[in-house]
Amino acid sequence: MRTAAWLYLILAFGFIYLPVGALVLFSFQDGTLPVPPFNGPSLKWYAEVLSDGDVTDALLHSLLVATGSSAVAVLLGFLAAYGLARHVLPGSAVMRVMLIAPLTVSYLIVGLGLLIVLNRIGVGLSLMTAGIGHVVINLPLAFAIIYASMGAQHENAERAARDLGASEAKVVILVTAPMLAPAIAAAFFLSVTLSWDEFIIAFLLTRFDITLPVEIWSMLRSGLSPRLNAIGSVVFLISVTAVLLLEFTVLRRRRS
User: Fold this and answer.
1) 13-45 CB burial, b ≥16 within 10 A, e <16
2) Are 144 and 73 in contact (CB under 8 A)?
3) How confident is the model at residue 69 (pLDDT cuts 50, 70, 90)?
4) Is residue 248 classed exposed, middle or buried when 0-12, 13-18 and 19+ CB atoms within 10 A define those classes?
5) Rounded-to-integer distance, Cα 248 and Cα 237, Å
């Protein structure tokens, strides 16, 4: 039984990580095509990518959009979670459903809807509009994570702070937010991870200043190249780094 479990685990991990392993391996290919046989290792494609101004600009744009939109999404999600968890509002159940519902909507539908609205009101496409789109898709996730973490112990601490004379703003900033810091950080890192490599909304809502996934798509039109593998490896490394930071700085501390 244990052997079968280990075999299943190895097959599952192989199925998940084999494509990523092939991507990283052939990013070190010395030839011009990322296909067997492997010739290398060589770092020339990484050097070429890092010296490409278009790629580095797109990389910085992706980081800017990911961190900025995630910060806004987490702030709005925290305020919405606090309001619905701590105050009795008419139709609060419907509000919760409406806040979480965008998680079930295709990114393509969200992007097309935003594109129509932005064109109608005359807003030009830019990194800002891409950030707005990422706020729309990350806000429900941030709200769900933070709202699920707001327990009775937090409410008791808030009530004690009010009894001691703290204003509502001080209660939120000095009591509620610090107690929810692990959930807030988890929502932020997950939002950054999702926004960082999101393509459809970034493609629809940007024009001249593009993000890294859009740059990769434009490069794919000229065929496969180890340069694409190198860029994909960098994207994968940054995504894994964000997840590891979440694990070691937030989730592990929360469990302990």
Assistant:
1) eeeeeeeeeebbbbbbbeeeebeeeeeeeeeeb
2) no
3) very high
4) exposed
5) 16
The number of C-alpha atoms within 13 Å of 248 and in the hemisphere containing its C-beta is: 6
Tokens standing for residue 174? 């000095």
User: What's the whole-model pTM score?
Assistant: 0.79
Torsion-angle region of 223 (φ positive above 0: left; ψ -120 to 50: alpha; else: beta): left
Q: What is the pLDDT of residues 131-154, one digit of tens each?
A: 999 999 999 999 998 888 887 677
Alpha helices in the chain, H assignment, sequence order: 2-26, 44-50, 53-86, 92-100, 107-121, 127-148, 152-163, 168-170, 177-179, 181-196, 200-205, 212-220, 226-246, 252-255
Specify the CATH architecture of the domain 64-214.
Answer: Orthogonal Bundle (1.10)
Sign of CA dihedral 28, 31, 35, 36: negative
Decide: 226 and 31 in contact? Cβ < 8 Å.
yes
Average pLDDT over the chain reads: 82
Cα–chain center distance at 13 = 23
What is the residue whose two structure tokens read 């296909």? 35
> Comparing 134 with 84, which gets the higher pLDDT?
134
